[in-house]
Amino acid sequence: MKYDFLISFFVILQILKKYFETIMKKLFILTVLIFIASCSQEPQQAGLNFIESENLINTVKVLASEEYEGRLSGSDGYMKAADYVSNQFKEIGLEPFSKESFFQKFNIEYNEVFPPVSLKLIDNQEVIKVYKLGDDYIFRGFTGSGEITAPVVFAGYGISVPGYDDYANIDAAGKIIIAFKYNPKWKLNDVNWSPGTPRYKSKVAAENGALGIMFVSFPNDENPQKTIGSTMHGDGVQNENFPQLHIDLDVAEDFLTGSGFTLKELQTIIDDNKKPYSIELKTSSQILVNAKYDKEKETVNVIGILPGIDEKMKDEYVILGAHLDHVGQQGKEIYFPGANDNASGSAAVMEIAKAFVGNNIRPKRSIMFVLFASEESGLEGSSFLASNLGIDTNKVAAMLNMDCVGHGDSIRLGNGKSALELWGLAKSLDSTYTKMTVNPTWSGGGADAAPFHQKGIPALYFVTTNSYTHLHYMTDTPGTLNPELYEKITELAFLTTYNVADGNYERENIVK
Questions:
Q1: Is 13 part of a structural domain of the chain?
Q2: Secondary structure of 56-71 in the HEC alphabet?
């Protein structure tokens, strides 16, 4: 009996020994995992601690300053901004995209408005009003040059196609046209609208004998668009002798004086009947504009590389990009600062590069930091890079785009329907760190992410919600930015870049 007890006691001791050994082993493994996890968190936390809204906004102030004159791609102001960025990349310690330079050069169609400029209302051969550039009117980015005084004609939507012709019942020869900036929101069953671009509408007006065109926003919209700066022009040949303006609604009403109609009434008549209703007016316009056009003007993307450190993965890339350009200046009287669009994204990319290099954060994959040219005129810079990467597109794990990230109230992650896993990674990081994203997303890329999406590269688009209050207005200044939101979205972009670059994401098949 005594021996049985001793044997049982010994067996119990052995069981307890094995139990505690198992517990200690598990505790040891857990400790190691916690240690590894804490080590992996260290570079992320270092990067987060580095990013501060004050530094971001200071960089925006530089890029949005009058010195760079609104950063029209290819202009002297833009090239100064590109030099500033390339010098920053060099100081940071990034490697240049090519052996010789941080610049990737390519040619674009270019147009810039220089003095003198003017717009006047003429009635009975007398100057009734002299309008102010910026407040009352803005030239389209691809306006032609000219000094003209001519009667004004209202030509509806400025469309001339089989089945619908705004020019059918008016004489536009030798006249200046007022036309709605956009095509109708409605459709006729058997009519296909022509392109609604300024260049095409100008071409139609010129073919009908007009000397120039003044575009106007829809007065019946709930919040009619004000005059904006824009370099979107559309396909076709530049008419270097055909002025194009965007005039304020009140200015359009001035030109309608004595016609018996308001602009609202004219839009209502056309939209209700779905038929043209063009009229000759009793006023004239005097336009003076001096534009410098160049069919082949050199501009640059600015690109810096942070090489990866993993032998197997360093030849793979993450692209973090934003467009540097905006819509420039006009007549040396006004310029468009483009603080949110897109000095904010540019400054964020630069700050993230500093966060990596300044904290010696070296992920497994390489990172390509890019500031694109010519987004405003049609994604030309990002399209050029996507087609001239110098590496196999299959080696690009992801493209992350930052555009209009400084103004608004929350964060949106675009293209989530096309890159589900990449979107999920960023969302999971947000739930841990920033907690400011909203769920709505989209597919197909968007802005400078689009050319990469079209090449089959997973892409994510960082943007803020309610971001476009000052879009393409002269009021898009650094003072309109939301510092807390701006810092948070930059932190989220840093975290996403780090996790993709460090191998915590594998390239997925995108949904097109």
A1: no
A2: HHHHHHHHCCHHHCCC
Same domain, 158 and 243: yes
| Average pLDDT over every residue of 333-360 | 98
Residue 477, domain extent: 43-110+295-501
87 and 66, same domain (yes or no): yes
| Residue tagged 């309109």 (tokens) | 480
- Give the residue from 273, 292, 311 where a domain finishes: 292
Q: How many residues does the chain have?
A: 512
User: 64 and 200 share a domain?
Assistant: no
User: Which residues does residue 370 pair with via DSSP β-bridges, in sequence order?
Assistant: 303, 321
pTM for the whole structure = 0.90
Q: What is the pLDDT of residues 273-320, one digit of tens each?
A: 999 999 999 999 999 999 999 999 999 999 999 999 999 999 999 999
Q: Is the peptide bond before 116 cis (omega within 30 degrees of 0)?
A: yes
- Domain count across the chain: 2
Q: What region does 124 belong to: left with phi over 0, alpha with psi -120 to 50, or beta?
A: left
Q: Residue 86: CB partners within 8 Å, gap ≥ 6?
A: 101, 102, 103, 302
Long-range contacts of 259-266 (CB under 8 A, 24+ apart): 259/154, 262/219, 263/216, 263/219, 264/219, 264/220, 266/154, 266/156
Q: Compute the distance between CA of residue 487 and CA of residue 315 in angstroms, rounded to an integer.
A: 30
- 3-state class of 384 per DSSP? helix
Q: Which of 277, 292, 307 is the last residue of a domain?
A: 292
Is 391 strand, coil or helix? coil
